[in-house]
Amino acid sequence: MRVKDVMSAQIVTVSPNDTAQSAARLMLETEVGALPVEVPGVGAIVGIITDRDIVASVLGKGLSTSTTIAEFMTVSPEVCNEADDTATVAARMRALGVRRLVVVRDDRRVVGLVSLVDLPAERRAEEGQ
Q1: What is the 3-state secondary structure (H, E, C) of the chain?
Q2: Which one of 2, 20, 64, 112 is most buried, counting C-beta atoms within 10 A?
């Protein structure tokens, strides 16, 4: 099975200059827990933020909700290709200790996100099968 078969085709991104509050609002509106950070007009992915990043890195440290994403994002996030095998991607995610990867096409454009829970082998493991 390929990543493109199980990924969330979520292409909502944020800019490094956006604020923590605007990102949190966008996550709420789109019902996602992570957003790729993209350079506007260029399409290059430079980072990723999660709802946990906003809580731990902004609120937990007493920073303002107007803190820019560039100040707390994970820089140069791990990516996978939409044609990658899901078992290989699951193993890589476990080895890296991450729960999500940005999914890109061959031209490095974002086409979605994949979470451990999206991957068939991981779902079976969670269900005790």
Answers
A1: CEHHHCCECCCCCECCCCEHHHHHHHHHHHCCCEEEEECCCCCCEEEEEEHHHHHHHHHCCCCCCCCEHHHCCEECCCEEECCCEHHHHHHHHHHHCCCEEEEECCCCCEEEEEEHHHCHHHHHHHCCC
A2: 20
Structure tokens at 65: 């909700």
Q: What is the pLDDT of residues 19-71, one digit of tens each?
A: 999 999 999 999 999 999 998 887 778 999 999 999 999 999 999 999 999 99
Q: Round to whole Å and give the CA distance between 53 and 129.
A: 32
* pTM of the predicted protein model: 0.83
- All domains of the chain in start order, with CATH: 3-126 (3.10.580.10)
